[in-house]
Task: inverse folding
């Protein structure tokens, strides 16, 4: 008997395998096609419609002109590694050695995938929250490990009891994403402490996806897992310049942690891309010294969040106001019921025609048929990382749902 090819396991883990064995496209691609076809405003995909700071773009151009066009060192250019270490010290008081404890990667995606491939394999279990970012599930499937998702509570917080119940002798890695995509939940120190205690008990490594670290609002605080007592030695921290500086296409990300874990990840990562972005890395090194640009972005995103949340509420959605990220999760149960639909997926397919707006169903971030997918079946994720005039237009259109 032949085994299921790994790519099919990846497709299955990310909900792309149809019952007839065919492979579908991601919900983001599907909804983007829908937006383009109907002229609807695409609040499904989370990328900014305004680029990051000009001086950072100029620095990349200057780096190209200065001849930084060949392979960068596999670990990343020294000034970027130093800038990452400085950033972690300045913001969080973390002591990181730029030479042995930092890797520059092709976005956070490569850091996460390389870490999961390096540290897990068949028989190992990887805990994540549920809903989860799709590449997390894909990487676990690539590694041949078992994904153990832990559903968030109804108010989208960590469920400490479910977390404990998911842990076994085979738990190798606990993957935590805070601020969390798709819910916008920012885990509190107390919630992170629950994860940390479990990781210590089970001798598991914690892999944290902190790509939205600077996009937190109101009185929420981003607490890096590595700052908790005893956690620096068992935590791999992943982040990226894409969200912080609105330069998602440059794919300059990084990972840091104890030298022996970083060595493990480097061993795998060097045979993935080896390196990328020679001219972008020095520009991001410059950006990382800038604490003002992320603060300004966060303040403007908080206002845009309020605009969209108020509009969604006025349009009959139930909203859990997010404390971080680019996203708000809105409950479309009233519309699903009123229109005789079965779930948010059907609502999302109808939204362009009903309201000229596109969102994505939150269940797409869950395992197909899971209890979390069921609990979140009427929820839709919308992004607010669009210009205020675009959001005002979207809110105006959404009002049509009430007519
Ligand atoms: C939670 C999360 N992790 C990782 C990524 C990917 O980051 P990058 O573009 O740096 O690979 C994203 C992008 O949307 C994300 O939302």
Result:
């Amino acid at each position: 008997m032949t085994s299921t090819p790994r790519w099919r396991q990846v497709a299955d883990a990310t909900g792309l395998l149809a019952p007839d064995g065919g492979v579908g496209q991601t919900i983001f691609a599907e909804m983007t096609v829908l937006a383009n076809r109907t002229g609807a405003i695409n609040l499904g995909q989370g990328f900014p419609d305004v680029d990051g700071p000009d001086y950072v773009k100029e620095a990349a151009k200057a780096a190209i002109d200065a001849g930084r066009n060949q392979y960068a060192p596999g670990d990343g250019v020294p000034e970027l590694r130093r800038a990452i270490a400085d950033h972690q010290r300045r913001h969080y008081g973390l002591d990181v050695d730029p030479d042995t404890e930092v890797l520059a990667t092709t976005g956070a995606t490569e850091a996460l995938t390389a870490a999961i491939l390096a540290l897990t394999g068949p028989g190992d279990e990887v805990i994540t929250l549920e809903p989860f970012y799709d590449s997390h599930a894909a990487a676990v499937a690539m590694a041949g490990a078992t994904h153990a998702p832990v559903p968030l509570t109804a108010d989208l917080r960590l469920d400490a009891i479910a977390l404990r119940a998911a842990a076994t002798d085979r738990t190798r890695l606990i993957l935590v994403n805070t601020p969390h995509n798709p819910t916008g939940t920012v885990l509190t120190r107390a919630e992170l402490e629950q994860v940390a205690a479990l990781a210590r008990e089970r001798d598991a490594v914690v892999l944290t996806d902190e790509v939205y670290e600077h996009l937190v609002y109101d009185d929420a605080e981003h607490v890096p897992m590595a700052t908790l007592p005893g956690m620096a030695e068992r935590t791999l921290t992943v982040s990226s310049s894409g969200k912080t500086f609105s330069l998602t296409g440059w794919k300059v990300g990084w990972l840091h942690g104890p030298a022996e874990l970083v060595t493990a990840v480097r061993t795998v990562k060097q045979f993935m891309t080896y390196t990328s972005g020679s001219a972008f890395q020095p520009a991001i090194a410059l950006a990382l010294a800038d604490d003002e640009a992320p603060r300004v972005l966060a303040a403007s995103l908080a206002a845009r969040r309020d605009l969209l949340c108020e509009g969604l509420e006025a349009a009959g959605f139930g909203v859990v106001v997010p404390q971080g990220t680019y996203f708000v999760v809105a409950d479309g149960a009233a519309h699903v019921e009123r229109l005789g639909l079965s779930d948010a997926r059907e609502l999302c397919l109808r939204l362009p025609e009903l309201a000229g707006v596109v969102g994505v169903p939150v269940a797409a971030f869950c395992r197909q048929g899971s209890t979390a997918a069921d609990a979140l079946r009427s929820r839709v994720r919308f992004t607010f990382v669009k210009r205020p005039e675009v959001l005002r237009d979207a809110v105006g259109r959404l009002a049509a749902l009430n007519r």
Notes: The chain has a mean pLDDT of 96. The longest helix spans residues 292-314.
